[in-house]
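User:
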Amino acid sequence: MSYAIERLADGLVIGGFGGGARNQRTRVEIGYHLAEAAHGQGYMGEAAQAGLSALWSLLPAAETIEAQAHPDNAASRAILTALGMRFVGERPVFASARDTWEPGCWYEIDRPS
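Assistant: Predicted structure:
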């Protein structure tokens, strides 16, 4: 599932948020991006919270949602923490845009009861 992030003030698409099921649909990985000009304005925190809520509703079999951020991306790691996700460790992730393996800090959250 993929969603565009639209700035309400002018309707400009400034990013995206999405999630895909893994492990027999009980585990979902999310990802997001935001236009550089929109960084630091609170848009991603708001969008990620809405996206996380939507995924819990739309994927009733999902038990855990996970995400990763580069170790140097403090803003993204802060968003994951603000979503209530816990850090579970580092493992490599393939960055297709750069055609290379990079370190990733992985976070997860279990379905709220």
